[in-house]
Amino acid sequence: MSNKIPHILTILGPTASGKTNVACSVAAQIQGEIISADSRQVYKYMDIGTGKDLQEYTVNGVEIPYHLIDIHDPGYKYNIAEFQLDFLKVLPDIKQNNKVPILCGGSGLYIEAALKGNSYLGIPMNEQKQQELEGYSLEELNALFDQIDPKIKENLNNETKRRMVRAIIIDNFLKENPEFKTVDKPEFYHTIIGIDIDRELRREKITNRLSYRLNNGMIEEVQWLLDHYLTYEDLEYYGLEYKWIGQFLKNEITKKELFFGLNTAIHQFAKRQMTWFRRMEKNGYNIHWIRSDLDLDDKTAEVIRLYKANDRT
Hints:
This protein is α/β, with parallel strands linked by helices. It is 51% helix and 12% strand.
């Protein structure tokens, strides 16, 4: 096994930008293994709604190894702290295989958690406390957030309700367990590639993809999950597609309302993804953007060129 410091290739982009296709194409040429940076693809049987597109992980008959996909049953409440630990667990395995780790996803939060980490790795999520806090109003959560250790605020902000809840739970845990030792973050460096898709093209692809999925199994997938694993209340936790289809299956909205409402929500989500990536750049992350409308071979070659240009070996 090589002792060199791992060089992580990160490929990010908004939904429908084609980032997974690029990542798999690159992996096939540089002996890479994909690490999914997605909060929902960790769940088994949630395939169409999460856009796993597992067929893309076979390139010219060769299966591309992937990690952090299909690792939990539906109903499990996965969180950012677990993702950080899981990410750190798979890195040595990829290094052992002398393969290139390729982090791929559209969640800026998860990508930052992997690349930056924080000093609270390994702190468990108190699900009972989480459920209690999620019932609080934003005003009540802000009041609790104001009282936590200032050092925690430096790493965990209050930009979203979920992050406030996590920060409050961490503060409580450390006060109750002052002897707790955090997990050390291993040494690595990274190159970040962003798939830059024109806004109108992105909108067109999102709309066409949604129409196809709604008519080719996504509704049936959600019904199956309800029959075997989840309640309607659970669907709220698992994101836009599951929430909206749940409303349709309860006969609260028509299929036309489902399509137009969900389509609008996904467009808004993609816009928020891009906002996050731009904020990452402002915070010092160097993202090399490449055009999504290039041929796959050209995108693959450009990603590999940029990755090799930043290699320190």
